[in-house]
Amino acid sequence: MTSSEPDSCTTDILQSLRDLYKVEEDLLKYGRDAASASRDQFLNEKIGKFFGLAIAYKNCFERLKVKTKVEYEKIIKDNFRHKHIQEVFEDITEIEAQWDTFLEENDITLEEDIGDTVQLDDFGPMDATLHDARTGNSTSLHQFIGQENLILILLRHFA
């Protein structure tokens, strides 16, 4: 066996990375197709499928017995001498770059549709409509908190 071939100890690492890449690739294709068919429908109804990416990373981390990205990268670094692991890691790096591009393109499209925006230290619109992704019910910020002051932090993270 050559040093570029994974041994039985690294086979699990390789399969974990392959599984992660496959989910990333499938979800990216789905997102591109759904967004090109109808961006509004994609954003309002189909974007929730992307949480599958978080589950894929969770599964990969659990399989590799790591809890942080630093630990994940250390395992890859420690096994990077294996050609197959190098190839899959490069594929993952490339698909993550494609994800970034996809998200940036959608952000640009969204920014074109946005009217007034709230800047740092501005008061936000208390009558802004919020949609509960689980129930589909709508409410306003004011109804949601039942008071006049709210600090709202919105995060977008797919990986």
The whole-number mean of residue pLDDT values reads: 80
Q: Class by helix and strand content?
A: mainly alpha
What is the total domain count? Answer: 2
Number of strands: 2
Distance between the termini: 35 Å
Strand content: under 5%
The global form is elongated
The helix-strand sequence is HHHHHEEH
The main sheet orders its strands as: 1-2
Instruction: Provide the helix percentage.
Output: 55-70%
- Could you state the oligomeric state of the chains shown? single chain
Kindly provide the radius of gyration, computed on alpha-carbon positions and rounded to a whole number of angstroms.
20 Å
Unreliable sequence segments = none
Number of helices: 6
Largest β-sheet summary: 2 strands, antiparallel
Task: Characterise the protein shown here.
The protein is mainly alpha-helical and 159 residues long. The protein has two domains: 8-115; 119-146, no CATH class. It has six helices and two strands. It has a two-stranded antiparallel sheet with strand order 1-2. A hairpin with a 6-residue loop joins strand 1 and strand 2. Helix 1 packs antiparallel against helix 3 (51-64) and helix 1 runs parallel beside helix 5. The chain is elongated and about 60 Å long. The two termini are 35 Å apart. InterPro entries: Astro_VPg. Pfam families: Astro_VPg.
